[in-house]
Amino acid sequence: MEKNAVRIKDIAAKANVSVGTVDRVLHNRGRVSEEVRQKVLLMMQELDYEPNMMARTLGSNRTYRLAVIQPDHTLDPYWQGPRDGLDKAARELKPYGIGVTVYSYSLTQVDSFVAQATAATLSRPDGILVAPLFYRESLAFFAQWQQQGIPYVLFNTYIAELQPLSYVGQDSYQSGFLAGKLVRFGQPQPGTFLIAHIAEDIANSVHVTQKERGFRDYFAQLAPARNGPAPGPREHPDKIISIDLPDPADPSFARQLNRLLDDEQAQLRGIFVSTSKAYEIAPYLQANRREDIRLVGYDLLEKNIHFLNENVIDFLINQNPKEQGYWGIFALADRLVFKKKVLPLKYLPLDIITKENLQYYVGK
Amino acid sequence: MEKNAVRIKDIAAKANVSVGTVDRVLHNRGRVSEEVRQKVLLMMQELDYEPNMMARTLGSNRTYRLAVIQPDHTLDPYWQGPRDGLDKAARELKPYGIGVTVYSYSLTQVDSFVAQATAATLSRPDGILVAPLFYRESLAFFAQWQQQGIPYVLFNTYIAELQPLSYVGQDSYQSGFLAGKLVRFGQPQPGTFLIAHIAEDIANSVHVTQKERGFRDYFAQLAPARNGPAPGPREHPDKIISIDLPDPADPSFARQLNRLLDDEQAQLRGIFVSTSKAYEIAPYLQANRREDIRLVGYDLLEKNIHFLNENVIDFLINQNPKEQGYWGIFALADRLVFKKKVLPLKYLPLDIITKENLQYYVGK
DNA sequence: TTGTTTGGAGTGTGCGCACACGCAAAAATT
DNA sequence: AATTTTTGCGTGTGCGCACACTCCAAACAA
Question: Which residues of B touch A356 (CB under 8 A)?
Answer without folding.
Answer: 174, 177-178, 181, 218, 350
